[in-house]
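Figure 2 data, in text form.
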Amino acid sequence: MNKGELITRVAENADLTIVQATEVVNTLLYTIGDSLRDGKKVSLFGFGTFTAKERKSRPGRNPKTGEQIIIPAKNVVKFKPGKELEEILN
């Protein structure tokens, strides 16, 4: 499912127009991103928890040339599924 399909499903399930559903989905995604950027975790009961974590720099290798490089540090998003989501999947 991509973002457009998600918006369509939200519109159908919540009896909203596509424009309204787009606003809802975009607001949700931007709010989650802003919270993670600010160092907060986002817990959606039953669905899961998003956290931001810094990945340290590490040595790597350029696959074309074989040259050793340093892969820079960066922030990554971690997701731990909630109990209800795991039950749906299994």
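Caption note: The domain at 3-89 is CATH 4.10.520.10 (HU Protein; Chain A).
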